[in-house]
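Backbone-to-sequence.
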């Protein structure tokens, strides 16, 4: 199985966690931080990142600020109050998912 397919299902909690840990970030910064933390194993494409960021913004999980960076505008994303609550829920759901996977891949013998 392609490892990027495994990461794809976890992209939302990954992005929420990165924003929780790092405060506000712009899109390219998110992709680079994920790549750095996973030692190059997670390569988030623009095609996966930006639709998710826009959906999370529409749902009130993220808020944005646009700032000038040199001669270009940069859009920063950060968690809203609801997003911070969602980060706890996302972490708990992911933790439960990992525990269930371990039951399948590391079954205890009786």
């Amino acid at each position: 199985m392609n490892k990027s397919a495994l990461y794809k299902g976890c992209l939302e909690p990954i992005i929420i966690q990165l924003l929780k840990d790092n405060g506000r970030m712009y899109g390219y910064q998110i992709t680079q931080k994920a790549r750095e933390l996973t030692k190059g194993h997670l390569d988030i494409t623009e095609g996966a990142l930006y639709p998710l960021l826009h959906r999370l913004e529409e749902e009130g999980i993220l808020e944005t600020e646009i700032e000038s960076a040199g001669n270009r505008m940069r859009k920063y994303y950060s968690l809203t109050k609801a997003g911070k609550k969602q980060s706890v829920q996302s972490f708990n759901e992911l933790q439960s998912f990992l525990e269930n996977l371990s039951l399948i891949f590391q079954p205890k013998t009786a």
